[in-house]
Amino acid sequence: MLSPERKDEIERQARRLRRRIWERLLATQGAEAPRDRYELVEPDLAAEVLDFDYLLEESLGRFGERGNRFEVAGAFDSKRRVIQVSRRFSPEEMRFTGAHEIGHLVLHPQQGPLHRDRPLSHSSQLNASKPLAEQEADYFAACFLIPDRLLKREFKSRFGSKCPFELDERAALFLHLEDQFEDVLDGVDPLLLARALAVASSFNGEHFCSLAERFRVSASAMALRLVEIELVYRSQSRRT
After folding, report:
1. In which domain, by residue range, is 130 found?
2. In this structure, are 87 and 100 located in the same domain?
3. How many of the other CB atoms lie within 10 Å of CB of 186?
4. Do residues 39 and 100 share a domain?
5. For residue 220, what is the enclosing H or E element?
6. Do 40 and 122 share a structural domain?
7. How far apart are CA 121 and CA 179, in angstroms?
8. φ/ψ of residue 173, rounded to 5
9. Distance from C-alpha of 67 to C-alpha of 124, rounded to nearest angstrom
10. In degrees, to the nearest 5, what angle opens at C-alpha 108 toward C-alphas 106 and 110?
């Protein structure tokens, strides 16, 4: 598991890279540079700042030993200075994979020359037995694509200023969790509430685009990020 100190350092690295992207765009585009901060969190822009080519490929083939082969989702080659992302996955998975590869380049510059990654899933992001470098690249991708300050602002505009979010029967009705209310409180599925908040497109009579849609990530990635920055507790049983 990543230590709090390491997480803080990875957050700073992701923030630093976003700043470099903004400075590059400002230098090259001047007044035409995008003012929307959401436009700065693109893996291809990060690759450009790092002087890597960013290529979307129809397929990157399969990798691994017999009986443990997988469809390659992303790869980077430090010698050729290229990042490749497979088109065989959803747009959200492709963006997260690209950001994951960027994470390796920023955090593990000594890795390579050729590195191939598996598809990222809800279960794999939760897997504490993954190699530490993979956990760090996952965390970097989440920090880069879902900046904590922007997420907190968007979350509070949708669900109110009380954080972490606490589920009561009224909120459960808004989130369509009325039949799973006790499961949430009992921690049967520790991410059940976070996933509901990640995909919710209305709350308390207000309609909006979901957090996952706003940040263009999967529901699972958004749910984990909500828990990581404690906008939602992993289990509501932790409430005092």
Report:
1. 4-145
2. yes
3. 12
4. yes
5. helix 219-228
6. yes
7. 26
8. -65, -45
9. 18
10. 120
